[in-house]
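Quick one before lunch.
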Amino acid sequence: MTDTLPDRAVASDQFRQALAVHASGVVVITAQCDGAPVGLTAASFSSVSLEPPLVSFYVDRSSTTWPWLRAADHFAVNILASDQAELAARFARKGIDRFAEPTRWRAGPLGAPLLQDVSAHLLCLPYETADVGDHVLVVGLVAEAAVHGPGRPLLYHQGRFGRFLAHPES
Ligand SMILES: Cc1cc2nc3c(=O)[nH]c(=O)nc-3n(C[C@H](O)[C@H](O)[C@H](O)COP(=O)(O)O)c2cc1C
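Model of the flavin mononucleotide complex:
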């Protein structure tokens, strides 16, 4: 670390290495657009505000899913459970039908696809977007929230999927 403020951004590989140390939960954002289901895996999901209830994620501007998501009147956040690493990988893979077998899903009450066996679903109305660097910040107003499982999360760390182990003293 330097003891004076640098006048430039950190090198890309140093940036990536540092970010990889940060563990995150994994969600799949889904929507229904022109009758077709769309979705992508995101680790950038975060809570934003309690009143009003807001959540956010960042989507790469080069994402081919983003134009469809942007056009949708609502979207779902599917919070993945610890045994859903393959599902997460599937919704990050290009050139496949992500909703084909073995993906199990159903249309939700407003139309957005809900993935089966996830820990929780949030149904969100578009609230705000902002261009930030090479990503778009997407903020959603949570209209409905449903918890399905015990909430054992799928985590992403150092480019690998893993599980949460509670500290024995906590
Ligand atoms: C664990 C994991 C987390 C990801 N998180 C994000 C994210 O937060 N934002 C994003 O734009 N892409 C993220 N991606 C990549 C997208 O899922 C993937 O690039 C995208 O689905 C590509 O397809 P598309 O061009 O059809 O959108 C992540 C991928 C993985 C495996």
